[in-house]
Amino acid sequence: MSNACFLGRFQPFHQGHYKVVEKYRDEFEQLKIVVGSSGKSRETDNPLSFEERKEIIQTCFPEVTVEKLEDMESDEEWAE
Questions:
Q1: What pLDDT was estimated at residue 49?
Q2: Closest CA to 69 of 46, 40, 39, 36
Q3: Cα 53 to the chain's mean position, in Å?
Q4: Distance between CA atoms of residues 77 and 58, nearest Å
Q5: Which string of b and e fits 37-69 if b means at least 16 CB within 10 Å?
Q6: 1 pLDDT band (50/70/90 cuts)?
Q7: What is the model's pTM?
């Protein structure tokens, strides 16, 4: 079984993302989309919440798994 993972912020999910998902969906048996910066929203660079981004993606691709990537804000957290 072939799997793929597509990681991004998807702020917003745009035509380029859509085309990548279409291509991966056709090439792989399973595709998981992982949403980064998932805890951020209502900021200039991150206007949409994780739930809003997930809904947009699954409206386009209901068969695709969408999960969030928890952020670690400090280098110390990443090092652990």
A1: 94
A2: 36
A3: 8
A4: 31
A5: bbebeeeeebebebeebbebbeeebeebebeee
A6: confident
A7: 0.84
CATH of domain 3-75: 3.40.50.620
- Rounded Cα–Cα distance for residues 19 and 35 (Å): 17
List residues bridging with 5 in a β-sheet.
32
Interval 21-71: pLDDT, tens: 999 999 999 999 999 988 888 988 889 999 999 999 999 999 999 999 987
Give the whole-angstrom CA distance, residue 63 versus residue 80.
34
Going along 1-80, which residue ranges are E strands?
Answer: 3-8, 30-35, 65-68
Helix (H) or strand (E) holding 26: helix 15-27
CA distance 10 to 51: 12
Q: What pLDDT does 54 receive? A: 97
Number of residues assigned to the chain: 80
